[in-house]
Amino acid sequence: MDAAMAELPGPFLCGALLGFLCLSGLAVEVKVPTEPLSTPLGKTAELTCTYSTSVGDSFALEWSFVQPGKPISESHPILYFTNGQLYPTGSKSKRVSLLQNPPTAGVATLKLTDVHPSDTGTYLCQVNNPPDFYTNGLGLINLTVLVPPSNPLCSQSGRTSVGGSTALRCSSSEGAPKPVYNWVRLGSFPTPPPGSMVQDEVSGQLILTNLSLTSSGTYRCVATNQMGSASCELTLSVTEPSQGRVAGALIGVLLVMLLLSVAAFCLIRFHKERGKKPKETYGGSDLREDAIAPGISEHTSMRADSSKGFLERPSSASTVTTTKSKLPMIV
């Protein structure tokens, strides 16, 4: 028999050896569902994993987790079973367990309670049982935690005058699977012209073109997925272009009138303040009351008044002295 096998081609020999090992029960085979798994928020997820091998002292089971978009090489262990002991680990350690413990009867199904949005990702079920031959010792399960949409936020941008265009936007921060968005106009209004309303259910954007006064109204956005729906509303007001120009001109006139009023007030106040100031002008012929007449010294005037007990300014009549003329008097 050995000589016959030696004459077989290499690939055929390898296939025959693999089949022999499988029939003898020395191969490790892990099986998981091919379809992704979905579990509502807060519920318990069961990640089914079965295997076939001859369980021995070296048997080991490991469950690990990798976040969406990350390579398998960046997976993190969440549960070990080895040497007859179970070791939950990581941030999920208090919420993970095995459906059958110990998992020595070919069932390695994982239970994850109170699922969170952060539990969405890929779970790896790996069985290691040397010296058994490995055909497929690893299984991958994709889990999605279903979350209803959060209350969306409505916003608007663009020119809301007649003939213009505007965009209404709607977005929910949470929701798995990703919500779809639908805009509806509340109330009964004339049907808009074809092509004047275009919406994107994925991005949540509604484009309104060629606006008219009848485009004014309340618009509601509804975000929906298989877990529920949420909505927000927005009021759109379309105005005539002339109204905007008239409003701008009116505001300009009011500003000019305000500036003119302030300038007039300041000018009037300036003239009033200027009129309150006294005019101090003296002529060349004005006489001062405190002046001393010619020919009388200040000392003499003070001595003459000392007999009265106080000083008194001489009057203008008494301060004028007459000098005797040196010319002879003719009779």
Provide an overview of this structure.
- This protein is an alpha+beta fold.
- It has helices at residues 2-6, 10-23, 241-275, 298-305, and strands spanning 27-31, 37-40, 45-47, 50-52, 60-66, 76-82, 85-88, 96-98, 110-112, 121-128, 133-136, 138-146, 153-158, 166-171, 180-185, 197-200, 205-208, 217-225, 228-236.
- The chain is 19% helix and 31% strand.
- The strands form 5 sheets. It has a 6-stranded mixed sheet, with no helix packed on it.
- Strand 18 and strand 19 (228-236) form a beta hairpin.
Helix and strand sequence: HHEEEEEEEEEEEEEEEEEEEHH
Placed side by side, the strands forming the largest sheet appear as 2-12-10-5-6-7
Using the alpha-carbon principal axes, give the shape.
elongated
Distance between the termini: 196 Å
- The total beta strand count reads 19
Task: Kindly report the average pLDDT value.
Answer: 79
Biggest β-sheet strands, sense, barrel: 6 strands, mixed
- Percent of residues in beta strands? 25-35%
DSSP helical segment count: 4
> What's the multimeric state?
single chain
Radius of gyration: 53 Å
Quick take:
The chain has 331 residues and is an alpha+beta fold. The chain is built from four helices and 19 strands.
Topology summary:
Elements: H1 2-6, H2 10-23, E1 27-31, E2 37-40, E3 45-47, E4 50-52, E5 60-66, E6 76-82, E7 85-88, E8 96-98, E9 110-112, E10 121-128, E11 133-136, E12 138-146, E13 153-158, E14 166-171, E15 180-185, E16 197-200, E17 205-208, E18 217-225, E19 228-236, H3 241-275, H4 298-305
